[in-house]
């Protein structure tokens, strides 16, 4: 199924790849044991087959890409990243940070700026030395300005500001 997902990507079918890999993720969750807080245990189980960390990060990334066309994938990205964080709270700091940033970024992509703001604020509080939290937070305003500016202009006109 993992290979099938990569085949879908080679045909630019990001959504289909995500659907396949989310099925794989469901199987991974069943194998995850609460006493193992990171992916090391599963890495040993799947050794020689595939790299579990690569799959997990590829899935997060492709959910983002698929979300550009279908916002439902941004919702799936939030759910996936939250499940990942629950299953593997002791995973390495970079992956934890990236999953949390993906959650905040997805809320922004869904125009839920209030929740995105909350998530980014918690992220930079927990990882103050990682610049990517601040960069993502700034991107929410800079990259999404095309969405925000018309709303802001309308608000200002309405309130004669």
Give a verbal description of the structure.
Helices cover 76% and strands 0% of the residues. It has 161 residues and is mainly alpha-helical. It has one domain: Alpha Horseshoe (Serine Threonine Protein Phosphatase 5, Tetratricopeptide repeat). Helix 4 (52-67) packs antiparallel against helix 5 and helix 5 (72-87) packs antiparallel against helix 6 (93-109). The protein is globular and about 65 Å long. It starts with a helix and ends with a helix.
The level 1 CATH classification is: Mainly Alpha
Give the structural class: mainly alpha
The low-confidence runs, each spanning 5 or more residues with pLDDT under 50, are none
Largest sheet: none
The CATH architecture term is Alpha Horseshoe
Number of strands: 0
**What fraction of the residues are assigned to beta strands by DSSP?**
under 5%
Radius of gyration: 18 Å
Mean pLDDT figure: 88
Which keywords apply here?
161 residues; Serine Threonine Protein Phosphatase 5, Tetratricopeptide repeat; mainly alpha; 9 helices
Write the layout of secondary structure elements.
Elements lengths: L1 H9 L3 H18 L8 H6 L6 H16 L4 H16 L5 H17 L3 H14 L4 H12 L2 H14 L3
Helix pairs in contact: 1-2, 2-4, 4-5, 4-6, 5-6, 6-7, 6-8, 7-8
How would you concisely characterize the structure shown here?
The protein is an all-alpha fold. It has nine helices and no strands. It has one domain: Tetratricopeptide repeat domain (Serine Threonine Protein Phosphatase 5, Tetratricopeptide repeat, Alpha Horseshoe), CATH 1.25.40.
């Amino acid at each position: 199924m993992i290979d099938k997902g990569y085949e879908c990507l080679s045909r630019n079918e990001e959504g289909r790849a995500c659907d396949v890999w989310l099925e794989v993720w469901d199987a991974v969750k069943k194998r995850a044991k609460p006493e193992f807080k990171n992916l090391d245990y599963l890495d040993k189980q799947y050794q020689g087959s595939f790299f579990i960390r690569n799959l997990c990060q590829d899935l997060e990334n492709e959910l983002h890409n698929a979300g550009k066309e279908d916002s439902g994938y941004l919702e799936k990205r939030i759910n996936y990243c939250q499940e990942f964080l629950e299953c593997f709270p002791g995973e390495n700091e970079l992956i934890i940070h990236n999953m949390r940033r993906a959650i905040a970024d997805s809320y922004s992509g869904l125009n839920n700026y209030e929740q995105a703001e909350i998530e980014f604020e918690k992220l930079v509080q927990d990882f103050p030395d990682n610049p990517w939290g601040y960069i993502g937070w700034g991107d929410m305003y800079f990259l999404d300005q095309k969405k925000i500016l018309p709303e802001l202009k309308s608000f200002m006109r309405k309130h004669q500001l």
